[in-house]
Write a structure and sequence with these properties.
694 residues, 21 helices, disordered N terminus
Length: 694
């Protein structure tokens, strides 16, 4: 090539670059191209001879097959046995008429298979070569279950422990109250298990539920993996042939009414350092609704993730929370979907967090979304949808959804086109229709003493317990004139034996017992005046945890590791190890304040705020009638952050040294979670030697 030609090419290139620079304005965002044509695989379907609607998606990449059965049912309300449906699946996997629980589990383990059962379906997965044996087990479960009273008793015991934990869990409190307020107690979504309902659950009720609703003619089955339609049909007909059809009743539920304006519901968690906030209300929307995709875009912009406005506002701008999000749910059966905007806020910022959530909800209704923000979230939706299609199970689920919920034909095939078609006008219209800050249940699970008054600016405030029962609207009882905190504490000391008797106690050895996962655990505590202490948590002769304090120094030991106490821990245990804790409260440097009268287990109790020498604050409750201490709320700090534990003292009885002791102690929250302990033994003045504190 000669120089002349080279120069000509260079000139052409230079001219093209100049023209390109002149025509491209980098400040203008390129227009999005048309949504790609979605090439979705199809699920092949058939109906078995006993009515199972089966959808098969072949995927021969791995020699694995999964089977899921989804029951299209509307069961009756659980009524006075709320919670029994949660046990049905566990009871079904606890053995059959031909196999004990251990034999059944061993058979699954031998196959390397998974079999999970809930109250509205089941899921199975195994290598293809083991799939016949897996389906044989599943067929046995569905046709020859053995409902075991022993297993139900065990499940109820575990559930009771879980309920105890909920009493200290603001997240659980929030879930309960939002469900009840949104749907009502006469709706399946508003039914909440309590200890009373748990105790009433019978094996017969669980078995009747199974026999009524677990029927093939209401079953949708998705089969995904290394299998052909012909193989799937042969397996279903062979292993589920004994599963008999039966007419299945369908209950009707009331459509939850929308709130009348905004109102505030507070569930009390005394001493909570955070508030769980939820701005929520029911919405009437079924899957496939013409507004569903528009609301998905609107909700995503508001609070669909870490780029949402709620997260940016409450966390990044104000640092009140680790995260704030919004969501909504469509409901295919009961017209009981819902919208929810949440945050776990610091207690002091509870009202401010609510205000900002409402502000962001309202902004979406009144200000058009900018193109960049709108397109950004639509791109995210398109990407996650396309990614989901890589899982063959998704195709099967989509096929079932369209049939089961009577969704528009091609809903998922046209999904990307419909997402791309959403405009800023659509987002605002969806927000105005479904995102309603002025008509909402504003729920806050936190310390009512610190948050209730501040929340009144958003609407009338009602205090609820964890089960949705309204606390008395009557004003708190007035404190008796001139009553002091020390007089209340003195009444407790007198009721437990008197100051003179307590002062005679030089050492005390107490053993409490609790059960965890079927194992007995002893908690031995030894105190010696003035402030020596040893605590040993022991199971079957093995020490799980040990704390030793000799009055000036100490250590903690667990799992073979020993750690000397630091200065902060020494100060803590100097207070904790005191033999006469309540008598210490009555003198300096402790400070006490009588805060009022509150209910504890339905009875009036004086509430006293105790500030320790360390500056830590403890809330102590003393029964008005008996004088006995009935509850303690204490906030502790650990590497995981602050947590509040609540301890209940019950069943006081006479014991060693002429003193009264609580024979039942229940603690919820704190590092150990929920614990229920009973007094096994107590001894006083046994001349405990100092060597035990070394």
């Amino acid at each position: 090539m000669n120089k002349k030609i080279i120069f000509s090419i260079a000139a052409i290139s230079l001219t093209s670059a100049t023209l390109f620079a002149q025509t491209l304005d980098r400040s203008i965002r390129p227009k999005a191209g048309p949504a790609p044509e979605l090439q979705m695989g199809t699920a092949k379907s058939f109906v078995s001879s006993n009515g199972i609607k089966v959808f098969v998606v072949e995927n021969h990449k791995l020699p694995i097959v999964s089977y899921s059965i989804d029951l299209d049912i509307r069961p009756e309300l659980q009524g006075d046995m709320v919670g029994f449906q949660d046990f049905v699946g566990e009871l079904l996997t606890a053995g059959t008429k031909n196999k004990s629980k251990d034999e059944f589990n061993a058979a699954l383990d031998q196959l390397g298979a998974k079999l999970e059962i809930g109250n509205d379906g089941l899921y199975m997965k195994s290598l293809k070569k083991n799939s016949d044996k897996l389906l044989a087990l599943a067929g046995e479960v569905l046709t020859e279950p053995k409902f075991s009273q022993e297993e139900l008793t065990k499940l109820k015991k575990q559930a009771k422990s879980g309920l105890a934990q909920q009493l200290d869990d603001p997240e659980a409190m929030s879930r309960n109250i939002t469900s009840i307020l949104n749907f009502g107690k006469k709706h399946p979504y508003g039914e909440v298990m309590s200890e009373a309902s748990l105790e009433k659950i019978t094996l017969q009720r669980c078995q009747t539920y199974f026999e009524t609703y677990f029927r093939p003619n209401v079953a949708y089955m998705a089969i995904v993996g290394d299998i052909s339609v012909e193989e799937a049909k042969a397996q279903v007909e062979k292993y589920f042939a004994k599963w008999q059809k039966k007419e299945v009743p369908r209950a009707t539920y009331p459509t939850p009414p929308s709130p009348k304006g905004a109102s505030v519901a507070v569930v009390n968690k005394s001493g909570a350092v955070q508030s769980v906030i939820d701005v929520t209300y029911p919405i009437n929307m079924k899957p496939g609704d013409p507004d569903e995709i528009k609301l998905k875009v609107a909700n995503g912009i508001l609070g669909g993730g870490s780029t949402g406005r709620l997260f940016t506002n409450l966390r990044e701008t104000h640092a009140w929370t680790y995260g704030s999000y919004s969501s909504f749910r469509t409901d295919e059966l009961t017209n009981a979907g819902y919208f929810s905007a949440t945050a776990n806020s610091t207690t002091n910022a509870s009202d401010s967090s609510v205000a900002e959530i409402l502000k962001e909800m309202n902004r979406l209704r009144t200000e058009p979304v900018k193109d960049e923000e709108l397109q950004g979230y639509k791109n995210y939706m398109a990407g996650t949808f396309a990614l989901g299609l890589e899982d063959p199970k998704t195709l099967a689920r989509y096929a079932i959804n369209e049939k089961k919920f009577n969704m528009p034909a091609g809903y998922y095939k046209n999904y990307l086109k419909n997402v791309e078609a959403v405009t800023a006008t659509d987002v605002m219209a969806a927000a105005k229709k479904y995102i309603t800050p002025g008509v909402a249940n504003i729920t806050v699970a936190g310390d009512k003493r610190q948050v209730a008054d501040k929340l009144k600016k958003f609407g009338p405030v009602t205090i609820y317990d964890i089960y949705g029962n309204v606390e008395s609207d009557a004003p708190a009882k007035a404190l008796p004139a001139n009553l002091t905190a020390n007089e209340v504490i003195g009444k407790h000391i007198a009721a437990t034996g008197g100051a003179a008797a307590w002062k005679k106690v030089n050492d005390m050895t107490m053993v409490m017992q609790m059960e965890m996962q079927g194992m007995k655990i002893d908690i031995k505590t030894v105190h010696k005046t003035p402030n020596k202490m040893m605590l040993d948590v022991n199971m079957m002769g093995n020490s799980l945890q040990k704390i030793v304090f000799d009055g000036t120094k100490g250590y903690m030991a667990a799992q073979g590791q020993k750690k000397d106490m630091d200065e902060k821990e020494i100060n803590q245990y100097r207070e904790e190890a005191s033999m006469h804790k309540e008598m210490d409260y009555m003198s300096a440097p402790y400070k006490t304040a009588l805060k009022g009268i509150e209910k504890v287990d339905g009875n009036d109790a004086y509430l006293i705020e105790v500030t320790k020498p360390s500056g830590d604050v403890v809330m102590e409750y003393f029964d008005v009638a008996s004088g006995l201490k009935v509850r303690t709320d204490e906030t502790e700090e650990s590497p995981e952050g602050k947590s509040t534990s609540t301890t209940y003292y019950k069943d006081y009885k006479d014991g060693a040294g002429g003193l009264k002791y609580p024979n039942a102690i229940k603690q919820v929250g704190g590092p150990m979670g929920a614990m229920e302990m009973t007094l096994k033994s107590v001894e006083v003045n046994t001349n405990v030697g100092d060597e035990i504190f070394k």
